[in-house]
Design goal:
single chain, 3 domains, globular, transmembrane helix, transmembrane, HTTM-like
Length: about 475
């Protein structure tokens, strides 16, 4: 759990750094989702977000710095319980500000922090542990939250398999062929295996049955350490394969971090014997440099409660966690087609309030067949047609060598995916005007554009490597006054 805490702190910092590069675009009123548009089209009344208090990018930058500070404290294990609560709330708030760029990894990261609020993941490898007088510190822990964490990991994989309710996943085995036909997410590793249909078929079937059956190994009571190592090893390799073949942002990294919490005692004994000594000097230096840092949020509470009242509070906490765990299981099972009984609208408020809502539909129920690439066709004041997506080069409908390279990061890729859906048509004019404004602000008057067309070159994936003729679709047109 301590290793997972360090990993989560690191991922939070990386995620904030990536998001901060698009501070104005995704989180301010000058970007693609102003607050009034968010509240009109996307918002749920039970969502909470302090990031919606202002549309100024400067306020957003301040909130990003606050979140980064607490994420760093989490990594170090300083005031871990308090910091975990703050990190969870800041992440929840940030994700609620723009749900159009979210993906499954965001849901998992949010849930890891939620369960960790009730777990002692600051007990080891932390500044808190160095200040603790308890010795020896317990190395095992069992509670409703620890059960919730393990069940959460199981739900991620079992539910994504159940949601893949299509013959291409468990019968014909063509799902991975279809996934690697999507140039928007195709990485070099995917290009290497794409020409081999038999290999893709067996990899597809292997993916489906691994996701469905592997998590149940965690429940085997005998030789539990061995089976946990099997689960961790297989999932680590599984997500390594995903990271080499598909453009999925931080999804694979978040999943790697999540399985650290499943490592059995034998693995941690090896870690402490072989690797931990290399970090001791670094830890000593860190403690020396931070010894005189002002205690910015040194909060101390003195509770004068009898043992009976402590037990009562503990029972209330366990009861709350058990209730949320039951709700999470209910939410997940209500999504799968085998049950086909959506959670009632009247019961959804808790999921949205705590953001324990989740849907693990990665390439489910089947892989998208609509692929393509964007052309941002700008008409200059000199009546030249240039492509803003290709740094102002002349417009061409020839397919780029790398469609992935057109996206700044996975947040923009996800945004562009949502941009295509008819029910998200409200997004289109705001994106169009944003790109037009950004271009004109950063270029000389001679290179200004007076009209911008957002064009999508649609390619529908066909079976058996059949050639595809792209179809030009104009999604939006905007211009200067």
């Amino acid at each position: 759990m301590a290793l997972m805490r360090i990993g989560v702190g690191f991922v939070l910092l990386v995620d904030l750094a990536i998001r901060a590069s698009d501070l104005e675009a995704f989180y301010s009123n000058m970007g693609v989702l102003p607050l009034h548009v968010l509240f009109k089209y996307v918002w749920d009344p039970y969502l909470i977000s302090i990031h919606t208090l202002s549309g100024l990018w400067q306020i957003q930058a301040l909130l990003f710095l606050i979140a980064a500070f607490f994420a760093f404290c989490l990594l170090l294990g300083y005031r871990t319980r308090l910091v975990t609560i703050v990190c969870w709330f800041m992440l929840l708030s940030l994700q609620n500000r723009n749900t159009l760029i979210g993906q499954g990894g965001d849901d998992l990261l949010r849930m890891l922090l939620f369960w960790a609020i009730f777990l002692p993941w600051g007990r080891h490898y932390s500044l808190d542990a160095k200040k603790s007088t308890a010795y020896p510190k317990p190395v095992s822990h069992f509670s409703a939250a620890s059960a919730g964490f393990v069940i959460q990991i199981m739900l991620v994989y079992i539910c994504t398999a159940l949601l893949k309710d299509s013959p291409e996943w468990h019968t014909t085995g063509t799902a991975l062929y279809n996934a690697l036909s999507l140039d928007q997410v195709l990485f070099p590793g995917g290009k290497l295996i794409y020409p081999y249909p038999v290999l893709l078929k067996y990899l597809t079937l292997g993916t489906y049955y691994t996701e469905f059956y592997l998590p149940f190994l965690l429940l085997i009571p005998v030789f539990n350490s061995f089976f946990r190592l099997v689960v961790v090893g297989v999932l680590a390799g599984f997500h390594l394969g995903i990271s080499l073949t598909l453009f999925v942002g931080l999804f694979y990294l978040i999943n790697w971090v999540s399985i650290l919490g499943l490592l059995p005692p034998v693995a941690m004994d090896w870690f402490e014997a072989k690797l931990l000594p290399y970090f001791e000097n670094l830890g000593y230096r860190l403690r020396r440099y931070t010894a005189n840092v002002p205690k910015l949020f040194e909060l101390r509470f003195t509770w004068h409660l009898s043992p009976a009242r402590w037990e009562a509070l503990s029972a209330i906490k366990e009861g709350f966690v058990i209730a949320v765990l039951g709700y999470v299981i209910w939410w997940n099972l209500s999504n799968v087609p085998q049950i086909n009984h959506p959670i009632p609208v009247a019961a959804r408020w808790l999921g949205m309030l705590l953001r324990v809502d989740q849907h693990w539909g990665m390439f489910a129920p089947q892989v998208f067949k609509d692929d393509g690439w964007y052309i941002l066709e700008g008409l200059t004041t000199k009546n030249k047609r240039i492509d803003l997506n290709r740094q102002g080069q002349p417009v061409t409908e020839k397919k780029p060598k790398s469609v992935v390279a057109l996206f700044k990061n996975d947040r923009w890729r996800k945004y562009s995916e949502n941009y295509l859906f008819v029910n998200n048509a409200f997004m289109r004019p705001y994106f169009c005007n944003y790109r037009l404004r950004i271009w004109n602000e950063s270029h000389a008057p001679a290179d200004q554009i007076k009209e911008l067309q957002v064009v999508y070159m649609l390619e529908r994936t066909l079976p058996n490597y059949q050639p595809i003729i792209p179809q030009r679709q104009v999604l939006c047109v905007c211009g200067t006054p």
